[in-house]
Amino acid sequence: MISAGTIEVQALRKVFHQTGTGEAVVAIERLDFVVAQGEIVAIVGQTGCGKSTFLNLVIGLDRPTEGRIAIGGRVPYDEFDHFRGVLAAVFQQDRLLPWRTAIDNVRLPLELLGQEPRDQVERARAWLDRLGLARFERAYPHELSGGMRQRVALARAFVIEPALLLADEAFGHLDEVTAAALRTAFVDLARTAGNTAILVTHQLEEAIEMGGRILVFGRPGKLLADIDLKTWPGGAVASLRAEIQRMLRGNTPEPRLTIRTEKEFRA
Amino acid sequence: MKPTETIASETVEALEARAPFRFPREMVVGLVVLAVAWEIVSMLVPPFVVPGWGRIFKSLGTLRMDFVLVTLARVAGALVISFALGLGLAVAMYASVSVERYGRPIVRLLMAVPVVCWILFAVLWFKWVEFRIAFVLVVVCAPVFLVDVLDAMKGVSKDLRDMLRSFRPTRAQLFTKLVLPATVPAILTSWKINLSLAIRVVTIAELVGAVTGIGYGLVVAQELFSVADVFAWTLILVVILFVAEAVLTRVEERVLRWRA
Ligand SMILES: Nc1ncnc2c1ncn2[C@@H]1O[C@H](COP(=O)(O)OP(=O)(O)OP(=O)(O)O)[C@@H](O)[C@H]1O
Ligand SMILES: [Mg+2]
To answer: What is the Å distance from ligand 1's center to B132 Cα?
Structure first.
């Protein structure tokens, strides 16, 4: 039995056809890797390298052109409803419902799961509290700052305690201090809950600060390196940073850094 | 002070800051100038062309005010039916692409037919006067509801839809938690449009054999060559429209207070 939070990506390929010209756009060339249950992974890559496309495939909003993606052995696009309450995502824009107050936004996923209204409120309130928004329960999104809205979005993702947490450049447009605080909150919450988490970013610093596994994506959508920061002593991180930057610029894979291959995982 | 109270009072302040009561000076001045000009003209031309305010107000006292209620009831009834029909069809077209593909051209065709033609059809097809009036109003108003609401439903942001879908809603949940609330502003706007449309159309529709209502009152006034009565009815219609629009605007402010 594969645990609910394990993600298997095999020969994954995604091609879009532009609406106007019908021209094919390769968003993901080929991806192969496995994310284990409870692992916290950062995906870095330049703009347009298919990071959001990949997350949409993980969420099951889109279907792969070729290859397979499975979470806990099930395919998110085909077995869409199986993933009720299993995964939650935080996007670059907060995507709050503007007609709902902060607490009602956080309640939303619990409503969809058909929980008791009293439990909904209690749990939503607890999460807002943990993210420092107790005073702003009844505020509408337009009455909150960008950072506060993103925290509400985080609470909305955490409230269902999903086995799989996804964040797509969720902290990118915030100031550094706020972004760091929220990122830490995200990683800590995921870690304490034992969730699998994937955090997409185009900022290398963000990925390094998380201190876990980093997948470096090249264009279009291919794996340049698969790095485990824990195997890198503190002093070596600076050279690693330079190495990754060179790799991103050159868009060439670096086998020396790819210490976690699919084969190694399977072995 | 409890923290939640801070937010509540901030919200109220924000609301007030957005819509402070301001005496509508320009509007009042404009209307007064118009009224005075009217009075001056009425002194220069015979009263059966332009009656003065004195005559108009005197005739206001003689009009059947129950006709006003009858007309309002017809408008209200027809609007409720139109809305139910428009919303129902919008949901059907939203749910099924083929229903929309077949339905859209038909609706567009209906909307291209002039009101006068609908009135003639109503006279030719139906005997019962109330039904004729309701038919004309519904056939004019329902498509407006349908098109506006459907367009708003289809315009719901893909980002929000994807966000909700990531939580795996049922079709009904997707509709009630996202599509419908996102459509509320468009629904209110279409009510505003249809209200003024219905009030202007109902009087013409009432010309087709009704023996009650403002339209009938206008016919009687015309038969009696009473220009003052015609003006008095017109005044009533305009006031009704203004009041109804003001009420809807208030409703809009309340319901859409979440808007920045
Ligand atoms: N729905 C779509 N239709 C057509 N092409 C698409 C679609 N979505 C993405 N693409 C294309 O796929 C490629 C990858 O896009 P994607 O949004 O996944 O990049 P990204 O890595 O998330 O970039 P960024 O860092 O800027 O968010 C781009 O070339 C884009 O034009
Ligand atoms: Mg992206």
So the answer is: 56
User: What is the dotted CATH code of the domain comprising A84-201?
Assistant: 3.40.50.300
Measure in Å the smallest separation between the Cα of B190 and chain A Cα atoms: 19
Give me the residue spans of the domains in chain A: 1-39+56-79, 84-201, 204-267
- How far is Cα A143 from Cα B11, in angstroms, rounded to an integer? 8
Find the CB nearest B166 among A89, A98, A139: A89
B63-259 CATH fold: MetI-like fold (1.10.3720)
pLDDT tens over chain A, length 267 residues: 567 778 999 999 999 998 888 899 999 999 999 999 989 999 999 999 999 999 999 999 999 999 999 999 999 999 999 999 999 999 989 999 999 999 999 999 999 999 999 999 999 999 999 888 999 999 999 999 988 999 999 999 999 999 999 999 988 777 888 888 888 888 888 888 888 999 998 888 888 888 789 999 998 999 998 888 877 776 677 788 888 888 888 888 776 666 543 334 333
**Cα B203–Cα B205–Cα B211 angle in degrees, nearest 5:** 80
* Protein residue closest via CA to atom 11 of ligand 1: A27
Q: Which residues of A167-182 are buried (b: 16+ CB within 10 A; e: fewer)?
A: bbbbbeebeeebbebb
Does B167 contact chain A (CB < 8 Å)? yes
Q: Which of A21, A29, A51, A216 to mutate to test the pocket of ligand 1 (most atoms within 8 A of CB)?
A: A51
Sequence-distant (6+) residues with CB within 8 A of A15 are A24, A25, A26, A27, A65
pTM: 0.84
Ligand nearest to the CA of A203: 1
